[in-house]
């Protein structure tokens, strides 16, 4: 890797050790994730985040990297939990964390946003020339004037969207287009896996009222303002990953494989994103799999999604900078829990002096909290793990006779097997249909008979593929239709 005509930059597999970012070891060790990346003002901007701001995370904040791959911490930097970034085109400013950066690299800080854990920023529906939305992880929605820096609290989404009492909100993504603001909360715990509900959702606001689109954990929403103005949102449930698509005035649901169970808890997703990384090409990171995705949905149908590779990385953000694909990370983190004491007395957080704060590590084999960047090319992602995964439209799901399942991704995998079983007292017939063109022209592939309370598996021919596959049962029942791709 060469930064200019004379200066080589030492790197190992696309990682420049000199660009490592660390948080301090005292008073406690915490996260140091790279929450947001953005090329702007002739440099690469990045902001790091801690798990919780209180008495932790020294050394984190706002940074810039120049063309010589030199890392500088900005003097305006503040410690916090930030993973939001947006270009506000009317004012020509970068929004990153609680900061605004102009085209000359001058930084202003929005005082009212510093103390909040900022998950996302989005364009304003009614005053896009002057204001931007800020969504916090706790579900507070603000609007901020990008000129005066005045902030106004609009909604407590925990109350508005009826997240169950006692559940931890964990909002992650937001996007505004098509006259709607879409927000994603990815709360998911064992209770959800067992069939309960702890608050995960995808919702939208049309400027007058809120509507919940899905009560399942969702991670991000994004889309271009052209090429059909499609919105994509990623989430999951027990059965599979989910791709929600808004096109031609309506939402559709598609299902994707899970590449790893290491993303199954709401803390573990940390912050899977959709971004345009080459001109008019979208890179989607979803449940341990990178996908290429076209921003276009002709006739309201999605046909341009294809798996690239599997991975175990935690990639809170990614972008293209100076011809490189840049992946941020959240790498070595002990996950420390804070405790306060003084002469056996319980103290409030803001009352505890530093010498009376200690941490209990959730991972006491993790040392210095640190994260770094990876520099490569988009096509390098094909050298990561080969696409593989599992999931399906049904996981012990109540299904109605004659009602087709959601479409499930089938393209881009070599070996495929379908597992079917049900709880009917009689033989049930399952129709397997494939959408070869990706345009909703479903064709019957097979009719599979599964005996009463029985089980059947079907191996597709090696290399057999279509864009989507779906299932239909001949009887009302509780059914499982699950596919393994290897």
Sum up the structure in keywords.
mainly beta; Methylamine Dehydrogenase, Chain H; 3 helices; single chain; 2 domains; 486 residues; four-stranded antiparallel β-sheet; Jelly Rolls
Main sheet summary: 4 strands, antiparallel
- Roughly how many Å apart are the termini? 35 Å
CATH superfamily of the largest domain: YVTN repeat-like/Quinoprotein amine dehydrogenase
Q: Say how many strands there are.
A: 39
The percent of residues in helical segments reads: under 10%
Helical/strand content category = mainly beta
- Count up the domains: 2
CATH-level-2 architecture of the largest domain: 7 Propeller
DSSP summary: helix tally: 3
User: pLDDT below 50 for ≥5 consecutive residues: which ranges?
Assistant: none
User: Order of strands across the widest beta sheet?
Assistant: 2-3-4-5
Beta-strand portion reads 35-45%
Average pLDDT over all residues: 92
Shape: globular
Q: How large is the radius of gyration?
A: 23 Å
In short:
The protein is an all-beta fold and 486 residues long. The protein contains three helices and 39 strands.
Describe it for me?
The protein is mainly beta and 486 residues long. It has two domains: 367 residues, YVTN repeat-like/Quinoprotein amine dehydrogenase (Methylamine Dehydrogenase, Chain H); 97 residues, Jelly Rolls (Sandwich). It is globular, with a radius of gyration of 23 Å. The relative contact order is 0.11.
